[in-house]
Amino acid sequence: MIKLFRYLEKFKWLIFFTLLFMFVQAISELYLPTLMSEIVNNGMMKGDTVFIWKYGGYMLLVAGASSISSIIGAFLSSRTAVGFGTLLRDKVFTKVEGFSLNEFDKIGTASLITRTTNDITQIQTVLVMMMRFMIYAPIMCIGGIIMAYSKDKHLTLVLAFVLPLFVVTIALLAAKVVPLFKALQKKLDKVNQILRENLIGIRVIRAFNRVETERKRFYEANKDLTDTAIKVNKILAMMQPIMILLMNLTNITIIWVAAKRIDANKLQIGDMMAFIQYAMQILFSIIMVSIMFVMVPRAQASAERINEVLEIEPEIKDPKEPKTPKISKGHIEFRNVTFRYPGAESPALENISFEAKPGEVTAIIGGTGSGKSTILNLIMRFYDVESGSILIDGVDIRDMSQKELRSKIGYVPQTVVLFSGTIKDNIRYGKEDATDEEIMRAAEIAQATEFILNMKDGFDSLVSQGGTNLSGGQKQRLSIARALVKKPQIYMFDDSFSALDFKTDAKLRSELKKETSNSTVLIVAQRVATIMDADKIIVLDEGKIVGMGKHEELLRTCEVYREIVSSQLSEEEIA
Amino acid sequence: MSKGQRPFGGPRGHMGPAMGRPVEKAKDFKGTVKRLVEYMRPQRYKFLAVFILAILSTVFNIVGPKILGKATTKIGEGILARYLRIIQIQIAIKRNMPRQVIENLKRQPVPSIDFEYIGKILIILISLYLISAILSFIMSYIMSTVAQETVFKMRSEVKDKLDRLPLKYFDSRTHGEILSRVTNDMDNIATTLQQSLTQLITSVVTIIGILGMMISISPVMTLIALFTLPSSGMLTAMIAKKSQKYFAEQQKIIGQLNGHVEEMFTGHKIVKAFGREEDSIKTFKEINERLYNVGWKAQFMSGFIMPALNFVNNVGYVLVCVVGGIFVAKRKIEIGDVQAFIQYMRQFTQPIIQTANIANIIQSTVASAERVFEVLDEVEEVKDKEDAVKIKNPKGEVKFEHVKFGYKDDELLMEDINIHVKPGQMVAIVGPTGAGKTTLVNLLMRFYDVKGGRITIDGVDIRDMRREDLRRMFGMVLQDTWLFNGTIRDNIAYGKEGATEEEIIKAAKAAHADHFIRTLPHGYDTVINEEASNISQGQKQLLTIARAFLADPPILILDEATSNVDTRTEALIQKAMANLMKGRTSFVIAHRLSTIKDADLILVMNRGTIIEQGTHKELLAKGGFYAELYNSQFSN
């Protein structure tokens, strides 16, 4: 948490004035009972109405000062806390946008989202609380004690007895309740989890006639949750009366002792009344501080998560003096590339060398986990190679700027990602300044025109977040169109035809062939039929190249390839 | 020292003042409240007890300050008496009274404070406060059980209800939507029952009680105190209205911001691939800036309410001090009364704010309750027939006779479908994605009922069987393999209740899963974690096959799809599936040509219905959709 506060630097004046006004507010609040005691001692007891009016006026002024400084304080602290949250959010988001996939894998997408949104909101909320109470409460507490002491030393002894009792009671109850709250949260999560599992697996549960078993499981979790909740609430039921009772008893004790002091002519009655109010102010400020103690640790966890993100240095950086290839054609070469995912024991790719030439189709096939997609990820420099090098048009990709590198590539990923916006926006994502004609042409080649025009608003139809209003095949075609509109030198298709039915698949590929005749095309596929006629097929098995060549050639020479083919095609198709 | 202030909010409390936040409203407020009350009827005696206890404990608490005031008054009287004596003596000296009179006055005992009286009062007070605390404790104690048990019952009922709802209900809603009704809404109801309801009672009693006490002290001062009320009420309303606007706006922008973050992070690869990081940051900064502009205002507005109220309060406080002071000076009221009055005033605003807040809380609770009741009111599945038929030794003959079906009432997908599958036959289902293969499963397992015609197994209409018996006849090996949190053993045993260890291992062996299970660190006791990420997709499929082996059903539904499975496991899965299908009627969602060619019957599906059926040769000869589909892939 404290680490994060280095970003408060920018707000130091705002914070200074916030604290200043909080201070003024606290002092004013502390001054009010003293003024009242003056009224009692010198006004009421002596019947001096003029004095009462005069001091009444003072009290109003002080109360006004307290309120005004409190409002100014609220104004400043809102700007500080929200500004801080805004700054932090900017920093985290910008940082994350610079991450390579490596860092994304490390933390996880869902977690990164929470860290950028909820966690920062949490910090912001706590900062507001801190600025409002962290300063105010201790001043009220200490100031209250000083004021009380100035009224009467002996009476303060009562506080010396009551305050520790109060603190200990709170601490004891908190020690009991806080862990229970944590348990409660866990049990609530458990109920949620069982429910979620039940919803996801509803078909399986019903198919296997497991409704009754699941019911029991839920019943137990529910019962467990209820029991804990009752336990917590019973302790809380004790807490409140105890607090109130302690306060009331404090009052009574003060009056008893004060009466003795008054009788001994050591104390005035107004001072006693002021003293009671100070005691209450002190007790309340202790409660406030204890609330802080509960709030801050919760924010602490958020702060740690945010810090972790901010401290990560992205591994992949642009070179200081980026090179640009002299001739730009899109020629790709792998030279002895070995790569392993962070923390993995065995490499995902080992000694990979091949060339993909402009005007040719290079296909990569192999089982899951054989490293097909990894090759594409390395070309895009989402990860850096462990050894060896990847060259594009003769330049090592680590010597180019990432922007330059990626501008050459039109990439169609395995899992389609679309953004909310219109169909047109989504295709245009490939090329910011694409004209309508270019967009329509890309859609045409991607076999998307028909379904787009069938939608209500054609190219202006809205795509919902994640593209949930489109079918898998439709999404895939849009994703292809997005890459096409870019007119890149290199096309990379990562299993991009899997959701298409055979007919569309065939048509799309024949259209694509015409469009990409001058480009380097890399296709990763599971279906043999998709890549049978490629200029070069690379067969991967467990990260190694086990075969390279044309379809017929591989059928003769490569065992793994034959295995894959025979599992998919029947005898006559192989021939 | 206000009642109902909770030192620890905790995760379940209504945190902080909910002031100024927009409130959700129920559609049918009255009806829902009525139902909710009906719901708590069995607990009515406890509620009555809580109600009485709340009133008593509050009353005891309210009398406190007035009695305490008496002690102060007594102290004041003591001092006054002393003043009077001194003044008497001074006057006597001034007037040159005879020495003897002065000596006499001086010799009389100095009047002191009546400690016996004060002591008595304080003891009464201590007992009052103690009783009040105990009563309040008993009240919350009872309430915690009542509230939680009511919600426990409700939650169980909703879960049971969900078990009786047709799949249609789940397919037409997101999981989040259903989940939030069972958890968030329930939680809301629990907290309200637990806290807000008693708070409402105590607040109302406190307001009335304090008002009474104040009037008994001084009607004029009460008028002054009441004068501050409308102003604080109006002030709160004014600020709340403004801040509600900002909060709503803030909520909207937060939604946009979260949406952007979620989209950009899940699409990170694409953003990078297309070099759009800077655009993304620009958009983010723009939204974030807007969030700042609204956010600090919302924050400020909600921080504004307290000081503003405080000021109005303080004005009242000062006025009461002044007026009370003058009254005391004129001997119209006692000094202890002023002290008591000040205490009452301090206690007065809190319950009023609380009641105003509770109005909001109750509204949102009723909205929650309404959503829960909505679930409870959903139309349930048609009940199993009383005289349900049970097939003793099912052979696995499946027939569709003139079946009509559609998910929507006015939109039929299937019209007059007839299929006849003989026992032990293999049926291949082919067609583009989204062609309606799930629909077939839905109908066979009776997740959905047909809209016309009938489906029979061994000649018995599936609607004449108990669902449980029907489903027991099916084994499912689908692509979305559903494994639950638990050991591998439990997951396999899911297929058959009371399965023995030998049976489980035998099933695992038959499914070619035994080997990989034994290579896992804990073998059959390996716990599959929530996302089942500790075993691969293919291994999961093997486990579901083992599960089906154990269940030993006469009819199978299989999905051949093996995406994300390495070639070796894929071969195992194929072998295991072939084993499993032996001697059983099977419906295979086919992805391999070899399967299709060997099938006894091919069902070609498109747009939710079966458009062609027959063997591979028949269908090719027909030259229809199937032929085209087949040729488009393999003609080149």
From TrEMBL, chain A:
Residues 16-298 form the ABC transmembrane type-1 domain. The chain crosses the membrane at residues 12-32, 52-76, 133-150, 156-178, 235-258, 278-296. GO terms for cellular component: plasma membrane. Residues 332-567 form the ABC transporter domain. It comes from the Bacteria. GO terms for molecular function: ABC-type oligopeptide transporter activity; ATP binding; ATP hydrolysis activity. It is found in: Cell membrane. PROSITE patterns: ABC_TM1F, ABC_TRANSPORTER_1, ABC_TRANSPORTER_2. It is a multi-pass membrane protein. The keyword Transmembrane helix applies. Pfam families: ABC_membrane (PF00664), ABC_tran (PF00005). Keywords: ATP-binding, Cell membrane, Membrane, Nucleotide-binding, Transmembrane, Transmembrane helix, Transport. The keyword Secreted does not apply. SMART domains: AAA. This is ATP-binding cassette, subfamily B. It comes from Caloramator fervidus.
UniProtKB/TrEMBL annotation, chain B:
The chain crosses the membrane at residues 45-64, 121-146, 204-229, 311-329. One of its GO terms (molecular function) is ABC-type oligopeptide transporter activity. This is ATP-binding cassette, subfamily B. The keyword Nucleotide-binding applies. Gene3D superfamilies: ABC transporter type 1, transmembrane domain, P-loop containing nucleotide triphosphate hydrolases. Residues 1-22 are annotated as: Disordered. GO terms for cellular component: plasma membrane. It is a multi-pass membrane protein. InterPro entries: AAA+_ATPase, ABC1_TM_dom, ABC1_TM_sf, ABC_transporter-like_ATP-bd, ABC_transporter-like_CS, P-loop_NTPase, Type_1_exporter. It is found in: Cell membrane. Pfam families: ABC_membrane (PF00664), ABC_tran (PF00005). Residues 48-364 form the ABC transmembrane type-1 domain. Keywords: ATP-binding, Membrane, Nucleotide-binding, Transmembrane, Transmembrane helix, Transport. Residues 398-632 form the ABC transporter domain.
